[in-house]
DNA sequence: AAGGCGTGGGT
DNA sequence: TACCCAAGCCT
């Protein structure tokens, strides 16, 4: 049993990551001094399954146009979906608009700072609620995203991959390491994510640049191949309903008036799949209309 | 609780 | 070229 040495090794991880982050944090919009809680919330929604580089320009445009929840709530869902452009998963734009409405109506236009109120907002799940609480309000709650999970899997557990998400266990592991000082906790939350995103990447990790390489359990074990349960793989996109939905949404975004049913038909040859995709969009509230009237974004 | 849900860059 | 991957959420 190497309990004492193991505890010491783990305890060394957070301060190293925090020190590394202080020197290596990228200059990102949401790290600017005075960046609003609303800005943090918008950025976190945009960053759900979308790379940083694609989010930055869209985020700045969005906040220029809608600098507060009230401003967005006063505009239409259609405008939100249009401004989302091709960021992907446009249901996020719809949810963000609905969240702005809820913040405007239920929270006097102020982004909530507690987990329960945040979780009650559409499009905000466990990760995003924690991220807003931690990064917008400095709450010392553990924040665990896919990058942090990979860092913990490797450095702490000696596994090359994180495997399927296990939220409770992942949060407990992060909580174990989280510094008690709120400022340090915030830096460790952000630093672990940054490390996973820029150094401890999924493929070809750059261990020579890693601040905790000599503390890393995976490295110490000789980088054993991962043999645990595999994370679920995302379905093929080409030819999928998602692709058809994407084509229809693009047509709706780019049209001033309703898009005629005949125009929709030209977007995809397979009628069954096309109708299924359209029905899904209607059900999701991303499109409204009927065959006779044509289809448009929700007002 | 497994699978649906966009899009585009990297290898 | 195909496939992988990305600050998840929802049902």
Description of the molecule:
The chain is mainly α and 299 residues long. It folds into 2 domains: 1-233, Endonuclease III, domain 1 (Orthogonal Bundle); 241-296. The protein contains 15 helices and 2 strands. It has helices spanning 3-24, 37-46, 52-65, 69-73, 77-84, 91-106, 115-119, 126-136, 146-156, 167-177, 182-198, 217-220, 241-254, 261-265, 271-284; strands spanning 288-290, 294-296. The protein has a two-stranded antiparallel ribbon. Strand 1 (288-290) and strand 2 (294-296) form a beta hairpin. Helix 1 crosses helix 11 (182-198), helix 2 (37-46) packs across helix 3 and helix 9 (146-156) packs across helix 11. The longest helix has 22 residues, at 3-24. The radius of gyration is 22 Å and the shape is globular. The mean pLDDT is 96.
Computed over alpha carbons, the radius of gyration is 22 Å
Question: Which whole number gives the mean pLDDT?
Answer: 96
The termini sit apart by 64 Å
Tell me roughly what share of residues is in helical segments.
55-70%
Treating each run of at least 4 consecutive H or I residues as one helix, how many helices? 15
- The count of β-strands is 2
Identify the strand order in the major beta sheet: 1-2
What shape does the CA trace take? globular
According to CATH, the homologous superfamily of the largest domain is: Hypothetical protein, domain 2
